[in-house]
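fwd from M.: "can u put these together and see what the complex looks like"

so here's what she sent:
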Amino acid sequence: MSKIVLITGGCGFIGTNASYHYLKKGYKVISFDNLYREGSKENLNWLKKFTPTPKFGVGARGKFIFIKGDIRDDKKLLITFKKYKPDLVLHLAAQTTMVNSVKNPREDFEINALGSFNVLEAARESKNKAVMIYSSTNKVYGALSYVPVIEKEKRYEYDDLKGIDEHFPLDFHGPYGVSKGCGDQYFVDYARIFGLKTIVFRQSGIYGPRQFGIEEQGWLAWFTNCLVFGKPVTIYGDGKQVRDVLYIDDLLSAFDLAAKNIEKTKGKAYNIGGGLKFSLSILELMEYLEKLSRKQFKYKFGPWRPGDQKVYISDIKKAKRDFNWSPKVSPQEGVKRLYNWILENKDLIKKAGVFK
Ligand SMILES: NC(=O)c1ccc[n+]([C@@H]2O[C@H](COP(=O)([O-])OP(=O)(O)OC[C@H]3O[C@@H](n4cnc5c(N)ncnc54)[C@H](O)[C@@H]3O)[C@@H](O)[C@H]2O)c1
C-alpha cells in the first residue's frame, strides 16, 4: 500500500515542492491549505495536473488530494487525521511574515501558535503514529546582537564564529518569532510528554521554483522578481546583511533523511540552512543577478528593519551528525534555477499578485 503524507500549507512554496517530491515517490499526498498566500491557488492548479498522474510529469505516480481547510479549525484537522491516517506529516502552514504579524498579532498567534497546537492535538487524539516535521525558523534565536560581527566591503561576517548552533538561547522577537517559537516548543514537548514522533527544523532562507516572493517574505525570490519585472526594490539597511540560503531540493532531502532516522531525531530541533558555505549578502545577490541577466536593478535604500540581524548563518553540524545531511546546491546554481523559473512563469507571477 502506498504511504500517505499530510502536508499542511501544501500549496505554499515549500508545500508544493514537497507535494511533487512525494507524488514522484508514489505517496498519496493530502494537501491541507486555506489558500491564504499569494500564489497558493496557482500552485494548487499546477499540482492538480498530477492527479491521477501517470501521464503527467516525469515519473509522477502518486495521488494528490486537496482539502481546503484552515489549521485554526481543530475539528477539520481531527477528521482529516482520522480519515487518512498519515505516515508522515509536514506541518508547513503558517502566517509567514513579520510585517503582517505586527499588523495583526492575534491572527498571527491563532494561525502559528494555536494552529500548530491543533495539528499536534489532532495527531494525539487520533492516536496517529506519523513522523511529524515542523518548519520552524531561525528567528527563534532573536536578534543575536551580542554576537560580534565585522564589516567587509560587501558583507558582514561573524568575527569568531562559524554559525549559530542549537545551543544558542531561544529569544523570541516580534509576534511572528513568538508564535513560530511557540509551535517549535510544543513540537519538541509533544515528543517528550506524549511520545509523538516530532522533529523541528529551524530553517534559514529557503528558495527555489514555485516561490512567489513578496517584499515581506522570501527575499531572494523578491529581489529576483523585481529585476525580471523591472520594478524598483528597496534595500532596508546597507545591503551587507548576510544570510545562509538553502535550495528547496536540499530541504526536501533533509525531510527524507530526518524522517528515516527517526529513532535519533525524534523530539529534537535542528538548524537547517545553507551553512557557512552557502551564504549571500543582499549586495552579492544583486551583483550576481545583474551579471546573470545582463540587466540593472532599480533600487533605493530604506531604514534598517527593527531586529534585522547583520548576519545569520546556521551551524548545521547536528543535522550532519544525526542524519548525515548536508546541502549540495550552491547559491550560484540555485539562484540560476530560480531566475529561469521566474522568466518562464512571468504571467503566473503577475496573476498571483506579488506586486500589489
Ligand atoms: N521559505 C522560507 O524561507 C522559510 C524560512 C523559515 C521558516 N519557514 C517556514 O516554513 C513554512 C512554509 O513556508 P513557505 O515559504 O512555503 O510559506 P508559504 O507562505 O509559501 O506557504 C504557507 C502555506 O500555508 C497556507 N496557510 C496559511 N495560513 C493557513 C491556515 N490558517 N490554514 C491552512 N493553511 C494556511 C498558505 O496559504 C500557504 O499555501 C512556514 O511555516 C514558514 O514559517 C519558511
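replying to her w this: The first helix runs from residue 13 to 24.
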